[in-house]
Design a protein that fits this description.
Bound molecules: pyridoxal-5'-phosphate
Order of helices and strands: HEHEHEHEHEHEHHEHEHHEHHEHH
Shape: globular
Radius of gyration: 20 Å
Number of helices: 15
Oligomer: single chain
Largest sheet: 6 strands, mixed
Strand order of the largest sheet: 1-2-10-7-8-9
């Protein structure tokens, strides 16, 4: 078990388990080492022995994407790249921009700006990336990014870059290192399906090397309007409030299916109403996440209500991104300010005291 290492970053902490060598610059912004928080209210609600949340929104740019991006940018540096490029609907671009800035190289982001959540785009620009709005969809953007990466010294850091998944698997290591065992079930949102594949690679690796004696059932959740894996066919017009899950033809489709089969898990869907219920419930319990992240807890609650949770189960839900990423939804889904004069007795009356 590697020593806990707050602020050390995933490359240093898990060096021997990653595709890095002494020639790979160990860059970091302090990613990884995110909180694992036990949730008694959710244990009671679903009837499980233990429910933990892994708060990946606490990564430097507010999403789990940092774990993979740090490895992808480090490898790009090692190969002598002067620029990284990606097409993105949000969190990938924020992460690429931050790590490129940290590494002192250029970052070019291809977006269809109207579809990107406000926080994610503002953040990407703050990290001084060059943002190119092609006013089109993600697939066209990805084709363009691939073309651009043919230029010498330009590396593509979309999730087809295998180093991304390698870095993301460190979250599975952290869970086992911190709990001292592999959980029975892992609940995780599924968009492009890279993260569920990365977690499974991590849990499997720890089992094979004897760091853990088991591995969890992988339970992935797609949004009902963007559920190609559940439906077993691509979705041409994916629709969901959870923008990070709005993907109709996931890049890591086959890997995700394998993860669910090999782990005796499942890939299921949750509706936008279930996602928003879980989003508001999490807020009321002190955990503010973006809508996509609430899909894991929506899935947990759904399985609880269907009587599918084992009383002895120890479950971990991945909270993939921070609530501030999508301030417009936060504003819409919460109770507004109460209007009142600045008079103590009037305020007390309004509060029912
Ligand atoms: C990228 C992302 C997802 C989806 O992860 P995949 O690896 O694409 O399945 C979920 N939640 C958030 C916040 C994300 O940024």
């Amino acid at each position: 078990m590697p020593a806990p290492a707050a602020g050390k970053g995933v490359i240093e902490r898990y060096r021997s388990l990653l595709p890095v060598t002494d020639a790979t610059p160990a860059i970091t912004l302090g990613e990884g080492g995110t909180p694992l928080v036990r949730m008694p209210a959710l244990e009671e609600r679903v009837g499980a022995a233990e429910v933990w949340l892994k708060l990946e929104g606490c990564n430097p740019t507010g999403s789990f994407k940092d774990r993979g991006m740090v490895v992808a940018v480090a490898k790009a540096l090692e190969e002598g790249a002067h620029t990284v490029v990606c097409a993105s609907t949000g969190n990938t671009s924020a992460s690429a921009a931050a790590y490129a800035a940290r590494a002192g190289i250029e970052c070019v982001i291809i977006v269809a700006a109207a579809k990107v959540a406000l926080g994610k785009l503002a953040q990407t620009r703050a990290y001084s990336a060059r943002v190119i709005d092609i006013g089109s969809d993600f697939d066209t953007g990805l084709r363009l990014a691939r073309d651009l990466s043919e230029h010498p010294g330009v590396t593509l850091v979309n999730s087809i870059n295998e180093n991304r998944l390698q870095g993301q698997k460190t979250a599975a290591f952290e869970i086992v290192d911190e709990l001292g065992f592999a959980p029975d079930e892992l609940f995780i949102p599924v968009g492009n399906a890279g993260n569920i594949s990365a977690y499974w690679a991590g849990f499997r690796q720890y089992k094979e090397t004897g760091e853990a004696c088991g591995a969890p059932a992988m339970r992935g959740f797609q949004a009902a309007g963007a559920a190609p894996i559940v439906l077993d066919r691509p979705v041409t017009n994916p629709r969901t409030i959870a923008s990070a899950l709005r993907i109709g033809n996931p890049a890591s489709w086959a890997k995700a299916v394998r993860a669910s089969r090999e782990s005796a898990g499942s890939i299921e869907k949750v509706t936008d109403d279930q996602i928003l219920d879980a989003y508001r419930l999490l807020g009321s319990l002190g955990v503010f996440c973006e809508p996509a992240s609430a899909a894991s807890v929506a899935g947990l609650i759904d399985r609880g209500e269907r009587g599918l949770m084992d009383a002895g189960s120890r479950a971990v839900c991945i909270i993939t991104g921070h609530g501030l990423k999508d301030p417009e939804i936060a504003d819409r889904e919460s109770v507004g300010a109460l209007k009142c004069s600045a008079d103590p007795s009037a305020v007390a009356r309004l509060l029912g005291w």
